[in-house]
Design brief:
Elements lengths: L26 E3 L2 H16 L17 H14 L3 E5 L7 H12 L3 E3 L9 E4 L30 E8 L3 E2 L2 E5 H11 L4 H6 L25 E4 L2 E4 L3 H6 L1 H4 L5 H14 L5 E4 L6 E5 L3 E5 L2 E2 L7 E9 L7 H4 L12 H4 L7
Parallel strand pairs: 1-2
Antiparallel strand pairs: 2-11, 3-14, 4-14, 5-11, 5-14, 6-13, 7-10, 7-12, 8-9
Helix pairs in contact: 1-3, 4-8
Amino acid sequence: MPDVLRKPVEGPSVWVATDFDGDDTWMYRFSPAEVAEVEAAADAVAAKGLGVGDFGRDDFPLPTLGPRFEAMQHELQHGRGFVQLRGLSVHDDVDHMRILYWGIGSYFGNAIEQNGAGHLMADVTDLGYAYNDRNVRGYVTNASLAPHQDIWSDTVGLLCIRPARTGGASVVASAMSVYNAIVDEHPEYLDFLARGFFHDLRGEGSTGADTEVTAARIPVFDHFAGRLSSCFNSKAIITAPNKTGDPLADIEIEALEFIEEVALRPEFHFGIDFQPGDIQLLNNLTVMHWRTGYEDDPEAKRLLVRLWLNLHDGRDLSPALERRSSMGPRKQVNPEASAGLPVGA
């Protein structure tokens, strides 16, 4: 039986929107010298003929920024759970931006593959798909997305190459604060959320089959080794029964709807606009995120690049949560194993 926490969570990962009134410590602005340091590292890697997946932190020296990134990793893991990096210059050469992004990401964690095809990065852009179509994932549409967490990684990173003409704002909420609302208002949901759900992998699992779901139930909230972690993606949960033939109980649906309702309360969430060159890093185990719908400039479509990382100083996870990746416990790639793997999705 799972260890169900039945009391409120405490600590800096528990926050509401008003906690950031007058506080922008979540935003790190690069100095010109720091931008030059990152560019020099990216140029040196490119001069060696290396690309995404071919190099690691040791190949991307950042003597000034490296220690600062370590402090940010601690904030991701033990603090509010999100940081935004601002001030990088955006190049027309997107491959150069990917190298730069991969190098920065290597200071935070190990990249994991984002689907069974082995993609290391995914372009978050509108490809014209309808959000509610079978096996369509929200990142290839321009639709507004519901509060969720990316289920496979400790951390999700987003690099903004181009924002939308209108809309597309990022929104975050503390999953720990949402949990406290459940404890306070609907404790009858706790056991169902700890038991967890199968997730629809929408054709991007290890087999590539469009009928594939996770091999086991994944807890929405999981208490292990003295810490609470969260893994919530209502769309993947709600569509899984179409493939398993095992319908959700009414109380399970109510619990999922309540989580979204709490996250969408104005006092619980915090909005962040993307600027070109921004990198956003979110702890997938403590922070929920979503975005508003958007409209593109047809000549310059919105483009964000996603990176999934397992933190170097990642928390211990229970076996139930470790298996959230359909490709194995905390599957990750490294420069030796990943050379030649594809970049985009």
